[in-house]
Write a structure and sequence with these properties.
Order of helices and strands: EHEHHEHEHEHEHEHEHHHHHHHHH
Shape: globular
Strand content: 5-15%
Number of strands: 8
Number of domains: 2
CATH superfamily of the largest domain: NAD(P)-binding Rossmann-like Domain
Helix content: 40-55%
Number of helices: 17
Strand order of the largest sheet: 3-2-1-4-5-6-7-8
Radius of gyration: 20 Å
CATH architecture of the largest domain: 3-Layer(aba) Sandwich
Distance between the termini: 44 Å
CATH topology of the largest domain: Rossmann fold
Oligomer: single chain
């Protein structure tokens, strides 16, 4: 590692993924003396992390390492933090960053764990970060991959991708989150890594809807495969790379999110497929299903760049009440016949 160890690592967000990734970081740097501090919105959540070393609302009785602490004071958490990990709902990022940036240390590196497009601007999270903070690209990174929080909290082995335009920054972050059960790879295709993590949530909603309607594995496999095809079309149209989509942040994340009962987006889709209204699904979900929030923004981006994304379009129509779940499959199957390799 050519860059020096951070004085402190701050994780902004005490949800399931933020807390789990804080555990990964703490386990990785435990012998290096680097403290990891979580910003929790609620005082009681911070107190539980400090007193019991648990975050039972999201991770049940998973024990957190002793070198993790928490606070509801943003200034306290961000002071002297050379690496700041952002793990908050994507649609609140712009507002939260405006408050966070006042306390950033000089030369800070920001790492986004968020998988969404900002509604209204269609910006990826790294683009929102750059716009709000004015930080150069080499100080902004993203992490994405087949990373279901509860499995990682249980230390079940997984891998992920740290993407940054600057390879030294990506390698620095990878060193800091390399735990015995968590292997990070690096990539400089930030756009491809981010979009893979965004669109897979929408495809997982579609797979969940199929599941909820009682459809079989053939149907779900078809949606996953064609979902990867339309994700790839969008990424290539925007300048990303094909090999990124064949990797952990593309195919890997898509398979995990579409096939696991631990996936929030799969769960939300399944509830919709069982006949619940969107408002009822949102009421039942304890955490944000990012696909619901990002679907319209992704479809708008696709239309702007003249990319055909039929599964995404169908999901948007279901979410906006323009298409029933029952008619979604019929709509997709009635499309014009074509070669599998066509890019439209």
């Amino acid at each position: 590692m050519t860059k020096p160890l951070p004085r402190k690592i701050a994780v902004m967000g005490a949800g399931s993924w933020g807390t789990t990734f804080a555990k990964v970081l703490a386990d990785s740097v435990v012998d290096k003396g680097t403290p990891v501090q979580i910003w929790a919105r609620r005082d009681d959540a911070a107190a539980e992390i400090n007193d019991r070393h648990t975050n039972s609302r999201y991770l049940r009785e998973t024990k957190l390492p002793a070198n993790i602490s928490a606070s509801s004071d943003q200034r306290e958490v961000l002071t002297d933090a050379d690496l700041v990990v952002l793990a908050i709902p994507s649609q609140s990022l712009r507002q939260e960053l405006a408050a966070f940036k006042e306390h950033f240390a000089p030369g800070v590196v920001l790492l986004s764990l968020m998988k969404g497009l900002e509604r209204g601007t269609d910006l990826r999270m790294s683009e929102v970060i750059s716009e709000v903070t004015g930080l150069p690209a080499e100080q902004v990174a993203v992490l994405s991959g087949p990373n279901l929080a509860m499995e990682i909290a249980r230390e079940q082995p997984t891998a992920s991708v740290v993407a940054c335009t600057d390879s030294e920054t990506a390698e620095w972050i990878a060193e800091l989150c390399s735990a015995p059960y968590f292997r990070p790879y690096t990539n400089d295709d930030v756009l491809g890594v981010e979009l893979g993590g965004i669109v897979k949530n929408i495809i997982a909603l579609a797979v969940g809807m199929c599941d909820g309607m009682g459809m079989g594995d053939n149907t779900k496999s078809t949606v996953i495969t064609r979902g990867l095809a339309e994700t790839t079309r969008l990424v290539l149209a925007l300048g990303g790379r094909l090999d990124t989509l064949a990797g952990l942040s593309g195919l890997g994340d898509l398979v995990a999110t579409c096939s696991s009962s631990l996936s929030r987006n799969n769960t939300a889709g399944r509830l919709l497929g069982q006949g619940l209204f969107l408002e009822e699904v949102n009421d039942r979900m304890s955490q944000t299903a990012e696909g619901i929030k990002s679907a319209r923004a992704v479809f708008d981006l696709a239309q702007t760049h003249k990319v055909e994304m039929p599964i995404t379009e169908a999901v948007v129509m279901v979410l906006e009440g323009k298409l029933s779940v029952e008619n979604m499959a019929a709509r997709l199957l009635s499309r014009e016949l074509k070669s599998e390799g066509e890019q439209h």
